[in-house]
UniProtKB/TrEMBL annotation:
Belongs to the PstS family. Part of the ABC transporter complex PstSACB involved in phosphate import. It is found in: Cell membrane. The complex is composed of two ATP-binding proteins (PstB), two transmembrane proteins (PstC and PstA) and a solute-binding protein (PstS). GO terms for cellular component: plasma membrane. One of its GO terms (biological process) is phosphate ion transport. This is Extracellular solute-binding protein. Keywords: Lipoprotein, Palmitate, Phosphate transport, Signal, Transport.
Amino acid sequence: MFKQKKWGSRCLKWALATLVTGLLAGALGPFGLEAAAASSVSGQPIIVVSREAGSGTRQAFVELAKVQDSQGDDNITVEADVLNTTGGVLQVVAGNPAAIGYISFGSLNDSIQALSLDGVAVSAEAVRDGSYPLARPFNLAWKEDGLSELGQDFMSFVFSKEGQAIVESSGYISPGSKTTWQEQAAGAYDYRSGGYKGQLSLVGSTSLTPVIEKLAERYEKLNPGVKINVTSNGSTAGFTAALDGTADIGMLSREL
């Protein structure tokens, strides 16, 4: 059982941005996506676009936006178009002015628009000060004492000055609170290559993948003998892969 395992994890804070195309503006009402589905844009029913069951992004959105039934279970409309990746949600929402969906702040691009919530626009500053409420951490997780020296060196790079600059420039948000690891690493030192060689695998969240790919690319340039394989197949798959040892690190867009 998961609770019997010992895990390590390091967090990158993130935001869930509620997204629409140009013809729809304003925040979702208090009844979330069910209310939006009953509305219309230019006489057309709104197309609700959601992630698949098991997606960390979906779980976070359901909990934070309270799209739940009286038992606290997922209550996103059964008529929603369900997509398995962040890219799929972006493509459908961008291509249909009547569509509305949700993705992470770091995946936001010029093809869509982000809704304000209670008059607050999503931004790194609004997430940090708590005025934008749909925010939750990303997690990189592994079995405690199960991460190789190469994996530990990669994590040191992630939380170095250069690594955190990549995180911020990619539209993600560095941790606000500090753990012992973060006190040592978050912007506190310049990374120096340890000359490691070998392969490292990261599996999981499609929302976390873009920034991890950028971090991996830079790390490989600093360490030419290293190959990092990043597989984007969802938080549940990342959790399972880290748990059974088929991946070195699981990428999760939800709490452990």
